[in-house]
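ok here's TFIIS N-terminal domain-containing protein, seq below lol
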Amino acid sequence: MTSYNLRKRTNPVIYSEEAASQLKLTDLAKVVRLPTGTTSVCFSAESVLSAKEILDDPSSSLEKVMSSLRQLSCLTVSKADLEVTGVAFSVRKLRKSEHLEIQRIASNLIDKWKRAVLSEREALKNIAIAQQQQRQSQSQQQQRQQHKREHESASLESVPEQRTLLS
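and the structure came out like this:
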């Protein structure tokens, strides 16, 4: 027997007796699956700064600090973002917290950011190397073309001399 579960603002979902009674997130009509590996979230500097304020405030509750750390761990932050906001200093201080869970999350977050900064630096280095190689190949190509033109002009100048000798 098929039953319908009608929920507000969603399409009806058809259940069969063999199926589990609990909905999966992917069963909902408006859920979009992102490609695997996509875990980053767009953010503004204000959201990072508000999380930083919570982390810096000694009167913040444990739940707020944990929530802010988890929020920051979901973000993909560049080196420039870290420099502008200064949030890495606040997180680094929390690695010495009394609470083990805060220590663990803060340490993991610092390690994640270190890897991101190193990979960003490596990518910039690779781009610089590629640009340098491209400039070198362009200059070599220009030198070859110049040499070819000089050789052609020299050979054209020598051709009339050969004609005069033959005549």
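fwiw The radius of gyration is 32 Å. kinda neat tbh
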